[in-house]
DNA sequence: AACCCCACTTGATGTCGATCAAAGCACTGA
DNA sequence: TCAGTGCTTTGATCGACATCAAGTGGGGTT
């Protein structure tokens, strides 16, 4: 599924993931050179706001390391996370100079930035970049729509299970499955961030996680370290179709 | 905002909107000729399901006339609408042969279809098409994310007001504003479809519409015909930032 | 006219998650 | 060591929306 696809992508290039994600495998040396001239790195601390909605964006960027969130806030302070940025994900929009969302670093975050104008010119001359960006955007659209189903129709328990399943699945593909088929991972988000993502309050998130633990669906060590003894039991709680899953 | 942008677009070409939306203003005669060879039209009745999620899609298409909905359904029948297709909107995805959503005609619907393989080849040779598609997809992503905020954080009343505002604004730009600044339009959706869009039940939709009528925010004639006496009052109910609106 | 059908409205009641409030717990720095 | 702070858990209560259950009313058919 799209949301999982997105989360399973990861860096394949030490120096700059944008080459792979935005320029694609077909990129040749000239393109790399072009990119090398325009790029610069920036690092942010956990909790720092990278971009405020409404800011002027004179760059586009790609996450190199760390996790960031995309979120929207209403006047009265209600906020909804609309995207999770993981390494290799793209930020910014060619052809628009105003940021539409807040971008907040969840962990220490390194981004590889490109000045927007030259990047746009590069896109004109290098069809692969545009094509790769189109594929990435379509994946994000699928992810957003999957999330709409979650926000609109799932119960709190299903929402939590879905989020855990996505994180577990991503980490599982990163070879963190323990010998006996258990999946173990650390939650990269606070309870509040999870609540903002799921359209819940942090208390409800906490209660539902406790409930899943009580019911033996997950095990908790500390506040962040999660063990999933049987992935299939977690998936049963998500409300999703589970056919054809790796963990069935 | 993005969602409104999307809804204000309309056909600018009698024979085939895809030329304008997907090929963009820079398209030359050759591109038009190419498209002419591959396209064919299909018409559906209101209520008909055009595509089932999981179907093989050997075509991409563009809405010529009418309204369709994109929706996702869970095993137990809960459904969430994830997009509204209006004239000139694009359906389908280059590079994927399986439909990810149900597409249902809300009104009588005419689509202009292109066989997928030739369309993909055309995209390879004609960068403008890909660039236009990228812009459209980015707009849809913004719309989806705006909808995520609505689904996750808005109250039932705000959801209804937001939906009415979007429809009103679209129709207003289509010059349906009556002399005294009132906005008048017909709802293109049933209460149930609105509920599926907003993540509510049809009863709640009905009650909230009644409440807005009681409070004088809207006037109702029959079940579908709506008059908005003061757009600003409706906008106040949406919970959105209202700065810079045409109707302020 | 009489009937049905379907979309819609309205009412009564129930429940899930929000809200308000108070601890608990790990970590920091003095 | 101890207070201070931020994140989390848990409890009590409330309220918005869902659910269940009758109606209503317009449009079409016979």
From TrEMBL, chains A, B:
UniProt xrefs under PANTHER family: CRP FAMILY TRANSCRIPTIONAL REGULATORY PROTEIN, FUMARATE AND NITRATE REDUCTION REGULATORY PROTEIN
Organism: Actibacterium lipolyticum
Single GO term (MF): DNA-binding transcription factor activity
Keywords noted in UniProt: DNA-binding, Transcription, Transcription regulation
SMART domains reported for this sequence: cNMP (SM00100), HTH_CRP (SM00419)
Domain Cyclic nucleotide-binding stretches: 23-140
Gene of this entry: fixK_2
UniProt keyword Cytoplasm, yes or no: no
Protein name from the UniProt record: Nitrogen fixation regulation protein FixK
Coiled-coil portions: none
